[in-house]
Design a protein that fits this description.
400 residues; alpha/beta; Rossmann fold; 8-stranded mixed sheet; 5-stranded parallel sheet; 14 helices; 19 strands; elongated
């Protein structure tokens, strides 16, 4: 049975934490809850006591606790400390090592894995100081779940919503051994270069050729690599996503833009993950004025774009190179062929055009191949899938 210590802080999203306790218990976890004084203004401790089956902890110095050192015994009891919601104030405390209440003291005393699920107004989330605090706690080994984009209690819209309890529960209770390695900052000292999202090849000032890639998988990989301790550079085509705090983001539009950006950075990175859906072809001519509707048929002449993945893997000083293959049929044969033909260290193949997973979805499944082996990663949310893939990469760079 996994023992989860849940810290609840003073934000509107505290109501979601009640559902989180229920889900954790349903999955067989034992849960103890720690609440800040502010949290108790949003939701009653009695609610968490009823849901967890355990007394709720609120005081740092409690004479009723043996030795009055509850923060030490709780910290040693837990297999994982999860703070959800984690307010901007709480994140600032963690980043700077403040310990003025039970929860912040528990964080300093904890030797287990620590997770935070941030929740705050979008302006607070985007504030430079909050971003700096997030970078600091990542460096300290804290794993971050969310936040998500959407409507907020204040009436505004943007990033800052706490991740849904089901998402948090899934990530927290993942039992795959390769995922657990990521809590040990196994990529410290590595620089990871990731390309993500689609490219857009202009036909005229208002039209372009592109694809349905949302960039979610690439951005999830950037987040997972950060959680593993790496320095991350993310080369991204046009997407409706915010880059994880702490990455070096390079925005590009066309396949040629992406090629130049990747090739300019590849020599300083030890791992390259080509998760972008780069256009294979682009128009020979991009019209300077809007193409008018005239004839019944229009002929477009396309030219082949440079192959980023192949050119990276062909370098004498190449990094550990991971490709992606999105296929509508014969997935294994196409993936193995691409692995060999482009001389890759690893390739992650996934189905597209099916009911579940693929482009635009929050979920996906991968079949990962490398010379002499393969592993299937079943359908799950892309955040957890990214962690599993990063952990597989870690396993292999140790033996390359």
């Amino acid at each position: 049975m996994k023992r989860i210590l849940l810290g609840v802080t003073g934000g509107v999203a505290a109501y979601k934490s009640a559902e989180l306790v229920r889900l954790l218990r349903k999955q067989g976890a034992e849960v103890q809850v720690v609440m800040t004084q502010s949290a108790m203004r949003f939701i009653s401790p009695l609610t968490f006591q009823a849901l967890s089956g355990n007394p709720v902890h609120t005081e740092l110095l409690d004479a009723d606790v043996e030795n009055a050192m509850g923060h030490i015994s709780l910290a040693r009891w837990a297999d994982a400390l999860l703070i959800a919601p984690a307010t901007a104030n709480t994140l600032a405390k963690l980043a700077h090592g403040l310990a003025d209440d039970l929860l912040s003291t528990l964080y300093l005393a904890a030797t287990c894995s620590v997770y935070v699920a941030p929740a705050m107004n979008q302006a607070m989330w985007n504030k430079v100081v909050t971003q700096e605090n997030m970078q600091a706690i990542r460096r300290h080994g804290v794993r971050v779940i969310g936040p998500e984009q959407g409507d907020q209690a204040c009436g505004e819209t943007g990033y800052g919503r706490m991740a849904e309890p089901s998402v948090i529960c899934t990530q927290l209770l993942a039992n795959d051994e390769v995922v657990s390695q990521l809590t040990h900052q196994c990529l410290i000292g590595h620089k990871v270069l990731i390309s993500a999202g689609p490219t857009c090849e202009p036909l005229d000032p208002v039209r372009y050729l592109t694809n349905r890639s949302s960039g979610k998988m690439g951005y999830a990989l950037a987040n997972a690599a950060l959680n593993a301790g790496a320095e991350v550079t993310l080369v991204s085509g046009p997407v409706a996503l915010s880059a994880p705090i702490g990455v070096d983001l390079i925005k590009v539009t066309t396949a040629e833009d992406m090629y130049q950006a990747v090739m300019s950075k590849v020599t300083t990175h030890s791992i390259y993950i080509g998760a972008a859906a780069v256009a294979d072809y682009s128009p020979v001519l991009s019209q300077s004025e809007k193409i008018k509707k005239q004839d019944e048929q229009l002929t477009l002449v396309l030219q082949k774009n440079k192959d980023i993945l192949a050119d990276v893997s062909a370098r004498m000083d190449r990094p550990f190179t991971v490709g992606f293959a999105a296929e509508t049929h014969d997935l294994e044969n196409y993936a193995r062929d691409k692995l060999t033909r482009k001389n890759l260290d690893m390739i992650a193949a996934n189905w597209v055009g099916q009911e579940q997973g693929g482009f635009d979805s929050e979920q996906n499944a991968l079949h990962v191949f490398w010379p002499g082996g393969d592993k299937s990663l079943p359908m799950t949310n892309k955040t957890l899938l990214a962690e599993q893939l990063i952990a597989l990469i870690v396993e292999h760079i140790k033996v390359v």
